[in-house]
Specification:
Layout: H1 3-17, H2 23-38, E1 42-49, E2 52-59, E3 70-72, H3 78-81, E4 88-90, H4 101-107, E5 111-119, E6 122-131, H5 141-187, E7 191-195, E8 201-204, H6 207-212, H7 216-219, H8 233-244, E9 249-257, E10 263-275, E11 278-288, H9 290-308, E12 312-317, E13 325-328, H10 330-336, H11 340-343, H12 358-369, E14 374-381, E15 387-398, E16 404-413, H13 415-446, H14 455-484, E17 490-492, H15 494-508, E18 513-518, E19 523-526, H16 530-543, E20 551-559, E21 562-569, H17 576-584, H18 596-607, E22 611-616, E23 625-634, H19 640-643
Helix pairs in contact: 1-2, 1-5, 2-5, 13-14, 14-18, 15-16, 16-18
Length: 652
């Protein structure tokens, strides 16, 4: 390469190395230097995008080769330039197949030399030189190499400028992010912290002073473990080691000692921070959840209290049509026999009996619609079909604006109280009725005592009526005593129970035949007074039998989750008037006082969640009575509390 080209090359290098010149100035000087070296008038830098050539910088007076001028790439000398790996050199453009004819007609450059410019392996544009006069000979290689060198320097400068622009933008974003991080850390309620791999604080946000009482500078260089309560040390150290192993820690609850000696609960999130694959530090956020933990503890206590109470509790959504229930406690599930899943989403009105008085139904609906409290007692039916009396109070729950958001219902099984009240009412009616009838008989026969002819008959009638009245009174007193006794379910052994009953009656009725059949291994969950109920049925069978040689069979068998007890005799059978109250659930005028013993049986059995039926035996060729008792069963592994069932309604 000649000395002239070497000097030119050095000048170009110096131009791009001059830090006092920006990119555009370096390009402009270089275009002038190379154009002079080539002996041409024009030099220009182009940008090619989307099939268009646009002049970025230029030297020379050509009116179409000025900054800002553009043309379709198909009409430009550069179209072929960007397709070539080496410099495109044309000594006579009009005759050269490398230059489109329309390009020559437009720009009228007789000679041309140019090279493409790439940035990050993508075509950016070209740097080109030319003159209106064709050359007599091609551009020599040394000149082509110089043009190629300029193209490389421009490419490098553009890549460097792009990199610097990206770097500046990244630094700007980093600074903005740093500022934003600083603003967040200084304004957030949480403690943002960093520790080294030994667990020493290297940074703590200003929230540390508000939460644990220490200023950030006091924490720097100290071990985080020094501030943790002893009870939380093991799990916190284990979590820190997991972070060092590359894991993220989320929602770790740990108790911290504050500067004033108090205890706060922090929820900690932590993660490892790496650089080039090397673990540098641990970064995390600690949130004060002391109040939340206290509230959750209070809620757990309240929830446990709600779940442990014997009163059923429901919560319904007041914002939805029909006020669907979205919560029931365990006591309500036990009360109704339905699970929470079965009850969820159902309206309060679905719990009302179908035959409830329409006025009561309307009163309940109207009270809920206007957001008022209401209390009522209704006879409802459990899932298994057993009836019970339920006392319900429904009250509205309001938000801070006074709007009703929910209804809370309290449901108490008052069957035992209602049974007692209604039994006393029944006894009073029976006693008044029979006392009135008996007094009429006594008074009517009292006048006959003056007549010696019939005095003995009248006296006998008076004695029978008086004895009947005394017996009725004794039965009523006995039944009332049972009603006033505390309900006390226990585990009863069927074999032992029947053995005592048989022994008692075989002694009192030596000519009678009593047999037993026990085909269950389970026990009975009822009160000890169940023995009195079964004994009453055996006594009735033997007492009212037409002969002394009565036959009574007692059997016990399984019936799902109940025990089936059956008492069968071969007597005359029981009349429908005596059993109607069991089937219909209430006494009629014709039945006053005639079945007090059966009332006692029904009272005892239903008190422990059972049922009682009595009637003639099914065989039309034989006479006799069949009494059946269904009572709760209890397995060996069950407790009495698990097996016991609530009382069912006696009369309704």
């Amino acid at each position: 390469m000649s000395r002239n080209s070497s000097r030119t090359r050095e000048r170009i290098y110096a131009t791009f190395a001059d830090s006092s010149l920006d990119f555009e100035e370096s390009v402009q000087h270089s275009l002038e230097i190379v154009a002079d070296f080539l002996g041409v008038e024009y030099g220009f830098l182009t940008r090619i995008t989307d099939g268009e050539q646009r002049i970025q910088q230029a030297i020379g007076s050509h009116e179409l080769i000025q900054p800002g001028e553009s043309c379709p790439l198909e009409e430009a000398y550069c179209r072929r330039t960007i397709q070539m790996e080496e410099t495109l050199s044309v000594q006579d453009a009009e005759a050269s197949p490398q230059i489109p004819s329309n390009a020559f007609e437009t720009f009228n450059l007789g000679c041309y030399i140019g090279t493409k410019i790439t940035v990050d392996d993508e075509v950016y544009g070209t740097v080109c030189f030319g003159d209106t006069t064709p050359r007599n000979e091609p551009f020599p290689e040394r000149k082509a190499l110089l043009v190629e060198l300029l193209g490389q320097l421009i490419s490098q400068a553009l890549e460097r400028r792009a990199y610097e622009t990206k770097l500046e933008e990244r630094n700007r974003r980093l600074e903005a992010e740093r500022q934003r991080f600083k603003e967040i850390t200084e304004t957030t309620f949480d403690i943002i912290y960093r520790t080294d791999l030994a667990g020493q604080f290297t940074y703590a946000s200003s929230s540390a002073e508000r939460i644990i009482g220490y200023q950030p500078d006091e924490l720097l260089g100290t071990q985080f473990i020094d501030y943790i309560c002893e009870s939380s040390v093991p799990k916190t150290l284990a979590a820190f080691n997991r972070v060092l192993d590359g894991h993220y820690i989320e929602q770790l609850e740990a108790e911290f000692n504050t500067k004033t000696g108090e205890t706060v609960v922090l929820e900690i999130n932590a993660r490892p921070v790496y650089h080039d694959g090397e673990l540098l530090l641990v970064q995390g956020v600690a949130r004060d959840i002391t109040r939340r933990v206290e509230q959750e503890r209070e809620l757990r206590i309240q929830h446990r209290a709600i779940e442990d109470t014997h009163i059923g509790i429901t919560i319904a959504d007041a914002s939805l049509p029909g006020y669907p229930v979205d919560y029931v406690n365990e006591a309500f599930e036990r009360l109704t026999g339905y699970t929470g899943a079965e009850l969820g989403g159902k309206s309060y009105h679905t719990f009302l009996p179908e035959d409830v008085d329409s006025n009561v139904r309307d009163e309940i609906r109207n009270s809920l619609d206007v957001g008022e409290s209401i209390s009522f007692e209704l006879l409802i039916t459990r899932k298994d079909g057993t009836p019970l009396w339920c006392r319900t109070t429904i009250s509205p729950v309001t938000d801070d604006q006074g709007e009703v958001t929910h209804f809370v219902g309290f449901h108490e099984n008052v069957t035992e109280q209602e049974r007692t009240v209604r039994l006393v009412e029944l006894l009073n009616r029976v006693l008044r009725h029979n006392l009135r009838n008996s007094m009429n008989v006594i008074l009517g026969n009292a006048d006959l005592l003056r007549d010696p002819a019939v005095a003995d008959v009248a006296a006998a009638r008076i004695r029978r009526r008086a004895d009947s009245l005394v017996q009725l009174s004794e039965r009523a007193r006995e039944l009332k005593q049972y009603a006033q006794r505390d309900r006390s379910p226990t585990r009863l052994d069927p074999a032992t129970l029947l053995s005592r009953i048989v022994e008692e009656h075989e002694h009192a009725f030596p000519d009678a035949s009593i047999e037993t059949d026990i085909s269950t291994e389970r026990g009975i969950c009822a009160g000890s007074e169940l023995e009195q109920a079964i004994s009453e049925l055996v006594t009735n069978a033997l007492t009212h039998h037409p002969s002394d040689s009565a036959h009574v069979s007692l059997s016990v068998s399984d019936a799902d989750d109940q025990v089936y007890i059956e008492v069968i005799d071969d007597g005359r059978g029981i009349s429908p008037s005596e059993t109607a109250f069991v089937e219909e659930g209430h006494e009629t005028e014709l039945e006053h006082g005639s079945s007090m013993g059966l009332w006692l049986v029904n009272w005892i059995v239903t008190r422990y969640g059972g049922s009682f039926q009595i009637g003639p035996i099914d065989n039309p060729t034989e006479t006799g009575t069949r009494a059946t008792l269904l009572v709760p069963a209890i397995d060996d592994e069950m407790t009495v509390e698990e097996a016991a069932q609530p009382p069912t309604a006696l009369f309704w």
